[in-house]
Amino acid sequence: MLRTRKIRWLSGTMVLLAILTLLLPQALLPQAAAAQAQTSGIDAVLVADVSNSMNTSDRDKISNEAMKMFIDMLPVQGDKVGIVAYTDQVEREKAMLEIQSDADKSSLKDFIDQLGRGPYTDVSVGVAEAVNILNHGADPSHSPMIVLLADGNNDFNKTKGRTQAQSDADLAKSVKEAQDQGIPVYTIGLNADGKLNKDALADLAKQTGGKSFITDTPDDLPQILSEIFADHAKLNVVKLPSVTGNGSYQEVTVNVPNDSVLEANISIMSSKPVEVQLTDPSGQAVDLNSDAAKLSTSKSYSLVKLLKPQEGDWKLRVKGAPKDSIDINLLFNYDLQLVVDPIKTKSYTKGDKVDLAAKLENGGQPLQDNDLYTDMKATLVVKDVDTGKSEEQPLENTGSGFAGTFEVPDNHNYELIIRAEEDSFYRESAPIAINASGATGSGTQPTTSGGEQDKSFPWLPVILGVIALIVVCVGAWFLMGWLKRKNRGFVGQMVVEIRDENTGDKSYPQYKKLVSFRGRFHLHQLLQLDPELKETEKYVFTPSNGDRIIVRNTAGGTLEKSGRAVDASSGVELKNGDRLSIPLQQADKTILIEYLV
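The structure assignment produced for this chain is given below.
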């Protein structure tokens, strides 16, 4: 117990320090500490319309191929993916799964292959559930995104009285939430039957900062998916020479430009199966199921992923059917951020000069491979906040970074962003605010005509304020902890069956989504409060770490977990795929539960 209290105190202290770092005056903090952090991690929710209209607008199940290809393009570890399949309701969903292995990717792709069709359509349902999944399962340090695959049309069930106006209102609410949380929605319009509502999908993407694409053939998938990845991760798509199959191997050079490349995705699209071979820059053959490279295949694409590849020319050999057109795209993945050196925090006036310097960092450390700078160009993008006008000016490449000077053109407010780019990627710095309007604000210090401060910094009020803040934050910390425990949400769903022990008959499986529960729920609630099953009230479920759940029998007793009897009085942990058998003595029935995330 003492150790637990110490851990809680240390955790509380760390949170307090973080709060103080955010709230103390900027004069006490380096500007770099306030810079917006950049991230290479992705949390994506794939949303697919699985209504019957897809039988004509998506005859070849392009949506399934696109989702699987997206998953294959993700890094081997670290990113998180959720899936929503909708009609006018959520038909199937997969809560956010952190990819840790090839098996995780296979699990997601198997889930996609099992998706069926259903009547009616309501786009707002899919988008709302995707936002909800990100709210409950996203990593705060990752960059969220939604990829929607649909024809953009709605088809409501007239017996439910649902109207287009209601759907539009619900969609607008979800769009506003996505805007507030910085979640771009990328749309892929499926148009095999020519009935695509492209304007609705384009507007949805535009409002959230995403992009909209249209396709009626799997042939477009590599380009579309590459562009979505490139836009979200600030990468450039490298187009490789197309190949016309002749029944023999044909060679294509894949140049890895530097040692900072984490992964290279080579997507190969062909209407017929292809065979692939690979050699590294030394001429050695590469096993395409090894720590160096992975080959993923589907009925409409092949994808070769190079892992931490050696700099130089790799040779890709592709054998396709005679006269078959083979398109090849290349997309690199970098763990790089562009960081600007701190500038003086002050108010500026027309004619003042601001010296700027920026460099690439890898994992928070300056980039060691200065060769990467060789072919890079950097630009300073200046936005006049008062007029809305923007202009660009080139910066100097110093060989280990970028440098330049911004001369304040007028007594306005400005936002500066540095953009550095080469053929395969680009990076943008966090915005830098320049206050030259004459008004003091957050992060500025009023100056005299000589540029010096009018008076010394008021340390005593700050110290007293910090002490008061600590007192408030300690109380807030314990209150927040209590509220968090009370309102913590669930993910995933439970598949519930009821077996009659007298006859051996089982009910049809019922899929019970858990996202509507907060803090805790008991089994009787999950069974819709059936009076016959009232004794299930003693089984209480609470959320745990890592998308797991704890089930307790408040009256004491045992249950079966995966065929083994366990004591449920102190709590039994459930993870994805675990099964429970809960016997009910009074009703002479057994509740069978499978937990799915």
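Interim note for the steering committee: The chain is about 25% helix and 35% strand. Residues 1-39, 441-455 have pLDDT under 50 and may be disordered.
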